[in-house]
């Protein structure tokens, strides 16, 4: 599978720099779909068209302030991710906290960018996140893994495992899923891939793959799910140019 993806990416890289307005159009398309699907996975009821309207600065009647903020915050978090990539900043725990701070801004400012001080559970999952007193230790281990053995992994595997390990730690009270998917795409973008969309219609397969990774440390299903979306995004770019 990776051979096919690497070949497609080589074809895409060979066409760089890509046409300016095509890239802008693709970015806007993926930007919207990423925001809509990531929020919908977490229960946001805005449709994709309503999400587009909110991104344009218009409120939608009958929807909560939280749902509007989730869209606006996700837009700002994506912009932050793009800034990290453009500046070629090294990955850090500080970036994780900043991303989460953006995700929860105006929703729960007291816990935005702050590791949880309470036990939490993941609805429907077998895996139980670590107790709060172990969060710092687990996040230190995540950063050590990233700086060490993760660098020898294929970028897709590294991105997938970063997401899975982070969300398994569940370091924040809320917003872990959105932050994890931002981290996944941050790592892909740093490696020259377009962002991918974990689609709400694939939510069950996504959750099952994550639970398998957390309970028996088998990441294969999740890697396969992410790899398929990488192919879809690269094909979208290749088809456009």
TrEMBL record:
- UniProt key word Oxidoreductase: no
Name the residues annotated as catalytic in the UniProt entry: 170
Can you provide one Gene Ontology molecular function annotated for this UniProt record?
ATP binding
Q: Which residues form the Fido domain?
A: 91-228
Tell me which residues are marked as the site Important for autoinhibition of adenylyltransferase activity. 42
Keywords tagged on the record = ATP-binding, Nucleotide-binding
Q: Name one Pfam family in it.
A: Fic
Top-rank taxon of the source lineage equals Bacteria
Q: Quick one: which residues bind ATP? A: 174-181, 206-207
Q: Which PANTHER family match?
A: FIDO DOMAIN-CONTAINING PROTEIN, FIDO DOMAIN-CONTAINING PROTEIN DDB_G0283145
Give the protein name, as stated in the record.
Fic family protein
